[in-house]
């Protein structure tokens, strides 16, 4: 992941100028832009000018000219038409931008370096995220980011996960002055421990978590009631929503005989069900776990409302 961000930052630096030239919409002049006007063969008519706060520049012979909202090509045509009839037979005018006015966009929330950043015309979402150092691993909710634009209350949804991985660049919008990207904190991965344990519920999953860890988080089994020899684990099938595979574990063999094959490593989204010693029924345990797993898949937030079994 680090290599991806280094490469992205380098590409942003290398191609910043190219992006400015390839903007999907033409750049229009505004206050604080600095422009260069050259008339071929006429040194006195060649000047550098700052667009004033009222959107005008002062130009020899022509006085104050409103340039705000024009492209450089528009201004070339305007100056040529104004100079041609009275001053020059065939003026050749060129207009270029010497320095763009300051443009800023912000990234807030769970990002490495939240804040406001300058950008160039033509820069896009990915370049702004790269300036902010990229998302915080395992903490940024990249799939539910939003973009808000100056003067609008609309929140534009962004799936930064697919965008940054290069799978879908359709959301790599061109930045506008005042843009704000918001990245929320990701819900931590969890496992659910249900059935005959002292404190059934949902617990934060960490890499390397074992079945014994999950049962300990649930304050252990209930004495004389928990049937640890037939613990059921429901495991989601990746890429196939609402499908799972069932694993039956004899946890007693781990406790009494150090059979570590029965203390299996858990995965994010696993549901652990500890059945009862009274009239144990694996079919019933599987049915209960199946229902709980389906609810978990639908809600995937909080299992605090589930009853003890």
Protein architecture, described:
With 309 residues, this protein is α+β, with helices and mostly antiparallel strands. It has 3 domains: 2-24 and 102-183, Outer membrane lipoprotein wza domain like (Outer membrane lipoprotein wza fold like, Roll), CATH 3.10.560; 34-99, 2-Layer Sandwich (wza like fold), CATH 3.30.1950; 190-299, Outer membrane lipoprotein wza domain like (Outer membrane lipoprotein wza fold like), CATH 3.10.560. Helices cover 24% and strands 24% of the residues. It contains 8 helices and 15 strands. The chain has helices at residues 2-14, 16-21, 72-83, 125-131, 160-164, 211-217, 251-257, 282-299, and strands at residues 34-39, 47-50, 56-59, 63-66, 93-99, 104-109, 115-118, 145-148, 155-158, 180-183, 190-195, 201-204, 231-236, 244-249, 271-274. The strands form 4 sheets. The protein has a 5-stranded mixed β-sheet, with helices on one face. Strands 12-11-15-13-14 form a 5-stranded mixed β-sheet, with helices on both faces. Strands 2-1-5 form a 3-stranded antiparallel β-sheet, covered by helices on one side. The chain is rod-shaped, with a radius of gyration of 32 Å.
